[in-house]
TrEMBL record:
Enzyme Commission numbers on file: 2.7.8.7
Gene label: acpS
Listed Gene3D superfamilies: 4'-phosphopantetheinyl transferase domain (3.90.470.20)
Catalytic activity: apo-[ACP] + CoA = holo-[ACP] + adenosine 3',5'-bisphosphate + H(+)
HAMAP family reported in the protein's UniProt record: AcpS (MF_00101)
Name this protein carries in UniProt: Holo-[acyl-carrier-protein] synthase
Enzyme superclass (EC): transferase
The 4'-phosphopantetheinyl transferase domain, residue ranges: 4-104
Cofactor (UniProt): Mg(2+)
Amino acid sequence: MIYGMGIDLADIGRVWDLTVRKPEFTAKFLTPREQTELAKFKGMHAAEFVAGRWSAKEAYSKALGTGIGRELSFLDLELINDATGRPVFTKHPFAGRAHVSITHTDKLVMTEVILEQV
């Protein structure tokens, strides 16, 4: 049964610009493992990765119904690509399954998260 669904739309350039101007910002929303994954990308692919993770975590917080804040932080969530390249939540507080989809244009990233009770 679906517990919650959240979507998010983010400007890739805006998120990337913040990351470049304030490198410490990355450690506030990417786990160490996600930062290791980010290091594998360059240029636009790095920007898409960062904005995609940001947006997916925002969408997760909406699906959970808490938003990012006191009850849920960006670092409570970890999103790593599996062997086929599909993004998967490897760390999250919801007891059920977390499904995620990420898509982007050259300027925007859109994510959807569905939390499923098992």
